[in-house]
UniProtKB/TrEMBL annotation:
<feature type="binding site">
    <location>
        <position position="152"/>
    </location>
    <ligand>
        <name>7-phospho-2-dehydro-3-deoxy-D-arabino-heptonate</name>
    </ligand>
</feature>
<dbReference type="InterPro" id="IPR001381">
    <property type="entry name" value="DHquinase_I"/>
</dbReference>
<keyword id="KW-0862">Zinc</keyword>
<dbReference type="InterPro" id="IPR056179">
    <property type="entry name" value="DHQS_C"/>
</dbReference>
<dbReference type="InterPro" id="IPR008289">
    <property type="entry name" value="Pentafunct_AroM"/>
</dbReference>
<dbReference type="GO" id="GO:0008652">
    <property type="term" value="P:amino acid biosynthetic process"/>
</dbReference>
<dbReference type="GO" id="GO:0004764">
    <property type="term" value="F:shikimate 3-dehydrogenase (NADP+) activity"/>
</dbReference>
<feature type="region of interest" description="Shikimate dehydrogenase">
    <location>
        <begin position="1332"/>
        <end position="1620"/>
    </location>
</feature>
<dbReference type="Pfam" id="PF01487">
    <property type="entry name" value="DHquinase_I"/>
</dbReference>
<dbReference type="InterPro" id="IPR036291">
    <property type="entry name" value="NAD(P)-bd_dom_sf"/>
</dbReference>
<dbReference type="InterPro" id="IPR000623">
    <property type="entry name" value="Shikimate_kinase/TSH1"/>
</dbReference>
<dbReference type="InterPro" id="IPR030960">
    <property type="entry name" value="DHQS/DOIS_N"/>
</dbReference>
<dbReference type="InterPro" id="IPR016037">
    <property type="entry name" value="DHQ_synth_AroB"/>
</dbReference>
<feature type="active site" description="Proton acceptor; for 3-dehydroquinate dehydratase activity">
    <location>
        <position position="1220"/>
    </location>
</feature>
<dbReference type="GO" id="GO:0005737">
    <property type="term" value="C:cytoplasm"/>
</dbReference>
<keyword id="KW-0028">Amino-acid biosynthesis</keyword>
<comment type="pathway">
    <text>Metabolic intermediate biosynthesis; chorismate biosynthesis; chorismate from D-erythrose 4-phosphate and phosphoenolpyruvate: step 2/7.</text>
</comment>
């Protein structure tokens, strides 16, 4: 089909018709531009999104039309250039502007160039600015493609780019030659972008034109459909008027209206001096919100919320009616835009981020248009009208009040004159009146109608049914109903009733009255939201069905949606039976419609025993009478309703909601003043209307009531009387009001009872919340005593003067009645009462706070308590939702099932796991072979692969059943091929089990397996097998360990070391995931005094591999390593990002013992992870947990549901709840920061991390004070708190726990202002936070000791101002004690001969030192009362144990438990050696010494702990015959002793045995013992190595961290070299 000639509309701006609108108008765009604006070069600039969609069409059309024109005019063909940039706000930058200009220059563009800006506002602003300055200005044309650009940014000539400091900070006014609005392109716009633009459309109508607003109000569905669900019957639908759909026409109409307004305003105020400011409606507050949440929320979304807030301000000032606010709210919502910061939509995008009033005000303040303590804000005065022709000045106080989520109600001034107030209309009466007037004949003016969602839903539905037409009069005070006398038609679309219960019930019978239309398939459909779809309707539907109507449940039985089949007879009539014990609304529904029965009059018989809520039935009957129909009430719950039609009275005053009326009346009662409610009185049928007479009067008030009004005068303040017992069954909702009054009563008689007992209110336990519990809890906060009983509550009167308002405020449980009743009490409570969640009153009285102040004379002010709290009184919530706890999800002692590819190391790693966790090991394959008495190859040969897989699955199930706890089970590689096995794994995980996937690089596996020929092959490459199974492994596991065995060389001895490393990494990983040991993982302790402060190193590499050799240098002095996952980049396209991250984790673990802190930092939190990729971040975080990292950073700005998702899998990983204020908008002293802290704490993390940005020194002190406040109590969480920025460096110095640090060698700092650990320690030393310390070696002779060298080297490299010196004494004398008790004492090593004697001078001895009977380390520890306690410890055994562990042969499957150990010598160190073997787990330990008695006495000293066998030389040497006797031998005899006679090589057993030999002597370096061991092929440990190892442990105990082993080693080697 050729392109039809499009129908276009034009709008004029600045005096000419340059705005052109239509559908599919590219042809027109180019013809118009090319003929009217001649240029030699045309450039289209667009973004990559639009390039894909439209660029091709645009350029083709360009060429077609330019050729046509050239052919017709003979002019030269112009050239067309295209330039495409990336989409997004980031492109609105100097850089991109420069690129475009360079491109223009490179293409030889001159002034004879015209630019098309084809795109959203970003393109329009940027390209417009380029055009404005290129060659001092070239012509440009706007082709806006987003709704926002069409109605807003393309019009008006404002062009701009952003700078890092501020949005739109550089720009120019430059008018486009044309603005072409092709509405057809909106069809490809993402929904959220379309909705975003609607905010501007609604805004424009709201300030300018009531009719436009009505179009928007009523057309929401159609307008959304025109864009989001377009009809496409023909190509170029809508281009011509013939093909344009109604929805398209409507869309055009509203867009054009908006465009016209903006054009008019621009025309009359081009440079924004006055009127143009009106377009800022919603933008003052909207911008402030945007400033805090961008880019998470879009501009229009923020403006939508801003409009409501600004409208509320106008309402508060009395400029705007609640009807208008309500209409604006519903209209905004109808397009899918948010209206509050609290709603789900917003939370979804911004997570838990809280925008405090302070922050919002701060941004409002910097708005250039504002002055002093007033802000310029557009005040609506009605829909379509503003108060002034420009923004109005509004005081800060007022704005704060309207922004705050909580309010403070102050005591009401005394002796106020009488007041009169009409509370909102009764909902029940409003809904009934609407139905009656709509079904009635003639016009009725309803006043006092409640404006709520419910009534709005009812109105809309009645209008859709054609039951009546409605108009508002009196600025929304009066609703004029033109009733249709019961005539209706089937609505065009379904009736959506939200969760409005009354509407749903009443309208069900109303729908039955609707006659059929010409199209027999048409039906009336009633539907609602998810909650509505669960609410019962069956009794009503049953009754109507029995009467011959046809109603079908479209989804769940018994609930909406309902499909009502129309009949010409409508409601048949006759006897209708209805079960009325569930809801009186069913009864009212039938009663209201009964007069319209067609065949015979209705006789309604209520069945099922007790009728509930009879008063409501009476109310319906009474109201029907007012509309001319008299119901005959017969005995036995039977009603006869005559046929006929309602006759509308001219006016109908809707009675006030009686429960609402209790609040103003109660204020009069409690404050001793007078209040009149003019729209409720003695004639009222509402139960709560009895409140004044039955409750207030007996309490001592004067009550004057007419049929329709009530006046209450309270007794003098403080003299209300207690009511010994009051039954409130007929007015249950009013019990909350009564309770607050009862809280301030006096005894009835002097000295008498001062207790009010309220009964008959049991149903209040299942209202919005458990109201009885709520009242008790909240009253208790004031000091009021209460108790409850089955049927009610007991309140003890309290003296007003001594009531204490709760600091944390009254929690309202989102219950309007709780909020309003406590605001009554607050009128007399001294000091001001905070009421939280003040918005909850909107359910029944949206203007309550305004009315309290302006009509009742109350006083309120604002307060911001931070984000809403997860309330602890959850029992108060009715039908408690049961808070999900993120518990440890993998059960520590659950059996670990190991899966993975063949060759990944499942068996050897599994064995190691078994060994280190001390658990039995099972191999599925072996178990298979064992129980089926066959080999697997045989089985396969005989039965085939499928049978094998099936059998394998059975074996797995059997094993899991048999050993669900404390085992290690290793599986065959192919087990995941069977679906039933996969299911078994998943089920096991769901039960809390651990399935560990061992991952190993497929190249390594191939290399390894090619050597092995003993196993069945697949006839398929390993690579293909892996490709097939990878996803299965992933779905079947909950933990993943990457075997980082890259260094395997195929040389056995070298590889053994490599495997040992992998194993020890696995060990660490297992400790994290199983909680073995003392909660297993390496936590960075915060209790250790000496280790203060602690640090973590932030790694900022895209790939850490090249840095690994230097990792120990980099991490020197750090206590943990942070892996910044967001900065990682996969080095090659062949490695997926996830695999890259997994590998980085395993590499880090392999190269450092420090715990890993795993962080994915988002852009808005100072990192690189895109803010909008929440899913990606959550997945990565969960991966981190799978990899068993020690710490996981979780940003608290994430949506709570996402955080919960992560926490649900946290196992034993510690959680750091983090928040970064990168823009420095939150002060440490502010409530907002406290709020962030609470928010962080609310996810129950292990560490809280709050980072600010310092703008001055003061911020650092405030930060430090903040930290002090939050780290005083023993159960306070560890806190990391500091400031970014150069100004914030001091806060890094002051922070005590896990300060992030950098290192000189790192390419970039992770955050501005970061310091390295040494710098921090140095600074702490300078400012006195880190005093110098003195350490000693006690003993004699010690001149030759290497200890000072070791320790001083270590202190120096760590940057600690410590010194280690010698103190040589013959005995442990006074001088030693004096040194240890000196304030600067940091610790001591103790050597021969003082190791025993020193014990008597110390305060405490550790278990280990006691067992060994010697102290080699003294540690001063701060006691509870800050006194110094000297602790004696022993690290000799640690040195030995760890050295043995490092050298244990890994190929051996023997566990230390099965090894035999020998200690040679019986001197002091032999005891440490024996103890080390014992702690290693060795069961059979022997000692050999030339003097047997000495050996015996050493052995005896351990007899309470373990057995040591004493052997003589004959036995020792016999060991050669018994072969492989000892696996571990420690020699403790001085190296200089001639020991040839003592032993020979035979003690090392048979050739080929590989044990570990440890020498404790270190001079000479290579003793005979070591030489023999080496020759026998044993692993050898030199004395120097043990010395360094134990020294390292000593340092650990003194200063809280290991030393720089490398530099110590270098120093030692040098010294040794000099000595040997
Ligand atoms: N100059 C002014 O008076 C003025 C007024 C308001 C806003 N602005 C500026 O406008 C910018 C925002 O503009 P925006 O909301 O149009 O966002 P935008 O330009 O970023 O566009 C939004 C997204 O929609 C895509 N897109 C645009 N049209 C599309 C289509 N038809 N089909 C599919 N995808 C499409 C874009 O590629 C982009 O990813 C801001 O920079 C703001 O400062 C300027
Ligand atoms: Zn805007």
């Amino acid at each position: 089909m050729s392109h039809p000639n499009p129908h276009i509309d034009k709008v004029s701006i600045l005096g000419s018709e340059t705005i052109i609108l239509g559908f599919h108008i590219f042809d027109y765009v180019l013809r118009d531009t090319l003929s009217n604006f001649k240029a030699s070069t045309y450039v289209v600039i667009t973004d990559t999104n639009l390039e894909k969609l439209y660029l091709d069409r645009f350029t083709k059309t360009f060429h077609k039309i330019s050729q046509e024109i050239a052919a017709a005019t003979g002019a030269a063909l112009p050239r067309l250039l295209t330039y495409v940039i990336s989409p997004g706000e980031e492109s609105k930058s100097r850089a991109v502007k420069g690129e475009i200009e360079d491109y223009f220059l490179s293409q030889g563009c001159t002034r004879d160039t015209l630019v098309f800006a084809m795109g959203g506002g970003v393109i329009g602003d940027l390209v417009g600015f380029v055009a404005a300055t290129f060659m001092r200005g070239i012509p440009f044309v706007q082709v806006p493609t987003t709704l926002l650009a069409m109605v807003d940014s393309s019009i008006g000539g404002k062009t701009a780019i952003d700078t890092p400091e501020a949005k739109n900070s550089i720009g120019a006014f430059w008018q486009p030659k044309r603005i072409f609005i092709d509405l057809a392109v909106l069809e490809t716009l993402p929904e959220r972008e379309f909705v975003n633009g609607m905010a501007e459309v609604i805004k424009t109508a709201a300030i300018w034109n009531h009719d436009d607003f009505v179009l928007l109000e009523n057309g929401a569905e159609a307008i959304r459909d025109a864009v989001l669900k377009p009809v496409r019957n023909v190509e170029f639908q809508g281009a011509t008027l013939e093909t344009r759909t109604t929805a398209q026409q409507l869309l055009l109409q509203v867009v054009m209206a908006s465009v016209a307004v903006k054009s008019y305003v621009v025309t009359h105020d081009e440079r924004e001096t006055g009127m143009r400011g009106l377009l800022n409606f919603g933008h003052s507050i909207g911008h402030a919100i945007e400033g805090l949440v961008t880019p998470k929320l879009l501009h229009g979304e923020c403006v939508a919320i801003g409009m409501i807030k600004e409208a509320e301000i106008a309402r508060h000032c009395g400029f705007l009616s609640q009807v208008a606010v309500g209409r604006l709210t519903r209209c905004i919502q109808a397009y899918g835009l948010p209206v509050t910061m609290e709603e789900k939509f917003v939370k979804n995008y911004i997570g838990n981020q809280y925008c405090s009033v302070d922050e919002l005000m701060r941004i409002l303040r910097v708005d250039k248009k504002n002055v002093g303590s007033q802000k310029r804000i557009v005040m609506l005065s009605a829909i379509g009208k503003t108060l002034e022709q420009k923004p109005s000045n509004i005081s800060d106080d007022l704005i704060r009040k309207c922004l705050a989520a909580s309010t403070v109600v102050h005591p009401r001034p005394v002796n106020l004159p009488p007041v009169t107030l009409s509370p909102p209309g009764s909902k029940s009466i409003s809904n009934r009146a609407l139905v009656l007037a709509a079904l009635g004949q003639g016009t009725c003016r309803l006043t006092g109608l409640l404006h709520s969602d419910d009534t709005q839903v009812m109105l809309t539905a009645l209008a859709k049914l054609g039951a009546a037409t409605f108009e508002w009069e009196n600025n929304g005070e009066t609703l004029v109903v033109h009733g249709n006398g019961g005539k209706m038609h089937i609505p065009d679309s379904e009736l959506y009733l939200g969760n409005a219960g009354t509407a749903a019930r009443f309208l069900t019978t109303v729908s039955v009255l609707v006659p059929p239309s010409a199209d027999p398939a048409q039906k009336t459909i009633l539907t609602g939201n998810a909650r509505m779809k669960q609410r019962p309707i069956a009794p009503l539907v049953d009754a109507l069905t029995a009467n011959g109507s046809v109603l079908k449940y479209a989804e769940a039985q018994g609930c909406l949606p309902l499909e009502v089949t129309p009949f010409s007879h409508g409601l048949a009539g006759g006897e209708i039976q209805l079960a009325a014990s569930i809801s009186s609304q069913y009864v009212s529904s039938i009663l209201l419609c009964a007069p319209y029965a067609t065949k015979e009059p209705v006789t309604l018989v209520l069945t099922g025993g007790q009728v509930i809520s009879q008063p409501y039935i009476d109310m319906t009957i009474a109201m029907m009478k007012s509309f001319g129909v008299t119901v005959e009430v017969l005995p036995n719950n039977t009603y006869r309703i005559p046929q006929g039609s309602y006759i509308n009275p001219e006016t109908y005053l809707v009675e006030a909601d009686a429960s609402s009326a209790t609040y103003p009346l109660a204020i009069a009662a409690i404050t001793g003043t007078t209040c009149t409610v003019p729209n409720i009185g003695s004639a009222s049928l509402q139960g709560d209307a009895g409140f004044a007479v039955n409750v207030l009067r007996p309490m001592g008030c004067t009550v004057v009531q007419t049929e329709t009004s009530t006046t209450v005068t309270g007794p003098p303040i403080g003299t209300l009387k207690a009511l010994p017992h009051i039954d409130m069954e007929t007015m249950t909702d009013a019990f909350l009001t009564a309770s607050v009054l009862a809280a301030v009563t006096q005894p009835t008689t002097p000295g008498g009872n001062n207790v009010t007992k309220i009964s008959g209110i049991a149903n209040q336990r299942v209202k919005e919340c458990n109201r009885i519990a709520a009242m008790m809890h909240e009253l208790g906060k004031f000091g009021v005593t209460t108790s409850e009983f089955d049927d009610g509550i007991i309140v003890h009167g309290h003296d007003i003067a001594s009531l204490t308002p709760p600091k944390e405020g009254v929690h309202c449980y989102d219950d309007h009645r709780v909020a309003m009743s406590f605001s009554v009490l607050a009128n007399v409570v001294p000091g001001g009462t905070i009421i939280r969640e003040k918005k909850c009153v909107e359910k029944t009285w949206p203007m309550w706070w305004d009315d309290l102040e302006s009509k009742l004379g109350g006083r309120t002010s604002d307060v911001d308590l931070g984000p809403p709290q997860e309330h602890h009184d959850y029992e108060v919530k009715s039908g408690s939702s049961g808070k999900k706890t993120a518990g440890s999800w993998a059960n520590g002692d659950a059996t670990i099932v190991v899966i993975g590819m063949r060759g990944a190391g499942k068996t050897s790693m599994g064995r190691y796991a078994a060994r280190t966790l001390k658990r039995p090991f099972e191999d599925v394959d072996q178990y298979f072979e064992r129980t089926l008495s066959t080999t697997i190859p045989e089985f396969i040969k005989e039965h085939g692969w499928p049978a094998f897989r099936e059998q394998e699955a059975k074996v797995l199930a059997e094993l899991l059943e048999k050993h669900p706890k404390s085992h290690i089970i290793s599986c065959g590689g192919g087990i995941v091929e069977t679906a039933s096995s996969r299911e078994a794994f998943k089920k096991y995980i769901a039960q809390g089990g651990i399935v560990l996937h061992l991952v190993r690089n497929i190249n390594e596996i191939e290399a390894y397996l090619n050597k092995d020929t003993t196993r069945p092959m697949y006839g398929e490459s390993m690579r293909d097998v892996w490709a097939r199974r990878e996803a299965w492994y992933r779905e079947c596991c909950n933990f993943e360990f990457v075997v980082a065995g890259q260094q395997l060389k195929g040389i056995e001895a070298e590889d053994a070391k490599e495997w040992a490393l992998v194993e020890s990494n696995l060990g660490r990983f297992l400790r994290v995931i199983t909680q073995s040991g003392s909660r297993g993982q390496k936590r960075v302790s915060r209790a250790h005094v000496a280790a203060k402060p602690t640090f973590f190193l932030s790694l900022t590499f895209p790939d850490i591999s090249p840095a690994l050799p230097h990792l120990s240098k980099l991490t020197l002095g750090s206590d943990a390593i942070e892996l910044r996952v967001d900065l990682l980049k996969s080095p090659s396209a062949l490695i997926s990002f996830r695999d890259h991250v997994a590998q980085q984790v395993s590499l880090l673990r392999r190269h450092s013992e420090l715990p890993i802190l795993y962080t994915v930092r988002s852009v808005s939190q100072g990192g690189q992870w895109p803010d909008n990729d929440v899913e990606g971040m959550v997945t990565l975080l969960k991966d981190g947990l799978q990899w068993g990292v020690e710490y996981l950073d979780v940003e608290i700005g994430l949506p709570r549901s996402k955080i919960d998702e992560v926490l649900a899998q946290k196992g034993n990983t510690l959680i750091v709840a983090s928040w970064h204020d990168c823009r420095g908008t939150v002060a440490w002293s502010s409530e907002a920061m406290e709020a962030q802290y609470k928010l962080a704490a609310s996810i129950s993390p292990d560490v809280i991390k709050l980072i600010g940005t310092a703008k001055s020194m003061k911020d650092n002190f405030e930060c430090s004070e903040f930290a002090e406040r939050h780290t005083t109590k023993a159960d306070d969480l560890p806190l990391i708190s500091m400031n970014m920025g150069a100004q914030g460096q001091l806060s890094r110095v002051l922070n005590n726990y896990l300060t992030p640090v950098t290192h000189k060698l790192l390419p970039v700092k992770a955050a501005p202002g970061q310091l390295d650990a040494r710098e921090i320690l140095l600074a702490r030393n300078v400012i006195g936070l880190l005093p110098a310390k003195q350490f000693y070696l006690f003993g004699t002779p010690i001149k030759q000791s290497l200890s000072p060298l070791m320790h001083n080297t270590s202190f120096q490299s760590l940057g600690l101002p410590y010194n280690y010196g010698l103190h040589e004494t013959a005995t442990v004398d006074e001088s030693v004690v004096a040194k240890m008790r000196a304030p600067e004492f940091g610790g001591a090593s103790v050597t021969i001969p003082h190791k025993i004697e020193i014990m008597s001078k110390l305060d405490e001895i550790t278990e280990e030192a006691k067992a060994i009977g010697a102290v080699n380390t003294v540690i001063p520890v701060l006691g509870d009362n800050k006194e110094t306690i000297l602790v004696g410890d022993n690290t000799d055994w640690l040195g030995i144990k760890h050295q043995i562990q490092r050298h244990l042969s890994t190929t051996s499957t023997v566990q230390p438990e099965q090894m035999k150990g020998l200690v040679i010598g019986a001197g002091g160190t032999s005891r440490a050696a024996l103890y080390a073997l014992h702690r290693l787990g060795v069961q059979e330990i022997s000692i050999f010494n030339r003097t047997l008695v000495k050996a015996q006495s050493v052995a005896d000293s351990f007899k309470d702990l373990f057995t040591v066998k004493v052997i003589g030389s004959s036995e020792l040497l016999k060991s050669s015959e018994s072969s492989s006797d000892f696996d571990l031998i420690v020699s403790t005899v001085p190296g200089t002793i001639e020991s040839e006679a003592m032993f020979d090589e035979s003690i090392f057993g048979q050739v080929g045995k590989k044990g570990v030999a440890v020498e404790l002597a270190y001079t000479p370096r290579f003793t005979r013992f070591l030489k023999l061991a080496g020759q026998a092929g044993w692993a050898t440990v030199e004395g120097g190595e043990v010395l360094i190892e134990q020294g390292g442990w000593q340092a650990q105990k003194w200063v809280g961290r290991r030393w720089d082993l490398e530099s110590v080693q270098v120093q030692m080697d040098l010294v040794q070299a000099g000595r040997v």
